[in-house]
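Project outcomes to date are best conveyed with an example. Our students and postdoctoral researchers have been running inverse folding experiments weekly, and each run begins with a structure described purely in tokens. The record below, which covers 304 residues, was selected by the lab manager from last quarter's runs and is presented without edits.
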């Protein structure tokens, strides 16, 4: 459920015991405002992952990962890695999970319609099967384990949530474009409810969870002193990682970067739903092995 509510990029969370690079400047990008002055520290720290804990913000229920790091390790100091979650079991033993995901629209907030789901899907996620015009109570838990109650009714080919939905919609501060996720594991019949929030919305519409500047400065101070520290990682959009597996960075640094080199990159704007293709060119480089500066510019001759 945590991974379903977070950005898909979070599927690459580091394994416990593995080596990673911590980028302080990337960490600051999760702050609501820029730093008053540059960070007086190295551009990157090589660390070992001590722990990865999945959690959710107590106010917004937004998922985040608390990653504990131990700096000051040697590049050749490798130990066997442990997964932050139980290792996968063979395919024939995989527990079956039923789930339902719906992107909210204006009708889901309308008191005349409320939240609806297809009948065939609801009968898998909210058993036992519901007949037309039947009503039933539903107990679910969120990411923090808090229990919530709903009442829903069969209406032709769909079910309609009545009691409990309006309060949930208000408490979670949901808007059009958010995704609601119901998930059930048949072994326990427990139903979980989560929200994958729409990203990049104006602050006037919704206040999102932010990483404080004090939190970043404390992490940087401890990293510079070689003391174990913990960072909270909120996955919001592709490319927002600041704790990156060592092999990913090492592989990128093997590339020979030269001025005037051109390449294409995929990205997604704040307004467009589909990824776009951007053409760029290198203008200068500086100590790539030390994670130094790389200057780039858009190449208008190759833009389409």
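After processing, the design step wrote out the following sequence:
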């Amino acid at each position: 459920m945590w991974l379903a509510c977070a950005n898909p990029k979070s599927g690459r969370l580091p394994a416990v015991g593995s080596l990673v690079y911590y980028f302080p400047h990337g960490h600051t990008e999760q702050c609501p405002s820029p730093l008053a002055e540059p960070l007086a520290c190295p551009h990157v720290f090589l660390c070992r992952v001590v722990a990865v804990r999945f959690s959710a913000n107590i106010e917004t229920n937004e998922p985040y990962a608390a990653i504990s790091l131990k700096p000051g390790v040697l590049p050749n100091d490798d130990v066997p890695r442990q997964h932050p979650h139980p290792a996968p079991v063979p395919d024939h033993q995989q527990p079956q999970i039923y789930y339902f995901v719906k992107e909210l629209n204006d009708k889901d907030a309308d008191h005349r319609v409320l939240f609806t789901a297809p009948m065939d899907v609801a009968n898998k996620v909210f058993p036992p099967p519901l007949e037309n015009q039947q009503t039933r109570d539903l107990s679910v838990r969120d990411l923090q384990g808090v229990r919530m109650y709903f009442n829903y009714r069969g209406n032709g080919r769909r079910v309609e949530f009545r009691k409990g939905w309006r309060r949930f919609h208000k408490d979670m501060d949901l808007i059009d474009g958010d995704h609601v996720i119901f998930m059930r594991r048949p072994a326990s019949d427990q139903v979980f409810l989560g929200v994958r929030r729409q990203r990049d919305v104006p602050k006037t519409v919704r206040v999102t969870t932010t990483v404080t500047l004090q939190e970043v400065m404390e992490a940087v101070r401890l990293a510079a002193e070689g003391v174990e520290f913990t960072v909270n990682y909120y996955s919001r959009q592709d490319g927002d990682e600041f704790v990156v597996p060592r092999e990913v960075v090492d592989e990128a640094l093997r590339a020979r970067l030269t001025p005037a080199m051109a390449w294409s990159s995929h990205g997604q704007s704040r307004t467009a739903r589909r990824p776009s293709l951007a053409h760029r060119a290198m203008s200068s480089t500086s100590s790539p092995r030390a994670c130094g500066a790389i200057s780039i510019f858009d190449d208008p001759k190759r833009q389409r």
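The helical segments are 2-5, 24-28, 119-125, 165-171, 213-225, 246-253. The chain has two domains: 1-253, 255-304. The training component of this project remains on track.
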